[in-house]
Fold this protein.
Amino acid sequence: MLEIDNLTCGYDDKFHLRNINFKLADKEFVGIIGPNGSGKTTLLKAISRLLKPNKGRVLFAGKDIWQINLKELAMKIAVVSQSPVTNSMTVEDFVLLGRIPHFKLLQFLESKKDLAMAEKIMSLTDILRFKDRAIAEMSGGEKQLVFLTRALMQEPKLILLDEPTAHLDITHQVVILDLLKRLNKRTGLTVVMVLHDLNLASEYCERLILINEGQIYKTGKPEEVLQYQIIEQVYKTVVVVDKNPISSKPYLLVVPEEERQRSGQR
């Protein structure tokens, strides 16, 4: 579905991703992880055509995304950014914006099909009861579900999410990630998301891409990437890696400075 071919991109003389190469198969569920400032969001911007490469290509279904019509691209790739703009629009009106790429020539209003789809997807994401509420009045977790719903209204093949669980309590984190996992399994939606929480990345992602200082440091299954030697090298902190007793996925525990001193570690 997606191929990143020798990608180099960034912002003037400040920060650049360098020589990024990976392929993404249809129906994958992939997490992009790495320290702050490593280039995770920059990579998402390049994939979604918000940032033009200095070198290399981003290919979707074998075609350079810069050669795909924007309307056509919006029907294939949806983006849920880290800090979407919110206003006093109602939830339903905001969600319906996701249908704009599907509007026909000279269509200015939503069709009955669009309205029916909005009701169906709002039911799926459990926000139908909020449809008449202003987005500005909603909690962080509720807003994140609204942004996800609008993205799903585009009927994408690939969805890119930048920190979808940031600043949310564990209830909303699990609700959003469980929903994405169900969509991935039941509808074949391909998911790529940036995550800071390594334990959530381990539990939900089939494959992880670890970025450090603008380059891919390691890619593979969670158990291949989330090894204590790798995490300590990249994140510069001491961790213990164990297995979740339920899922057997890697689970990371941080070691506070006081405990490191007590055990004789630096």
The mean pLDDT is 90. Residues 170-187 form the longest helix (18 residues).
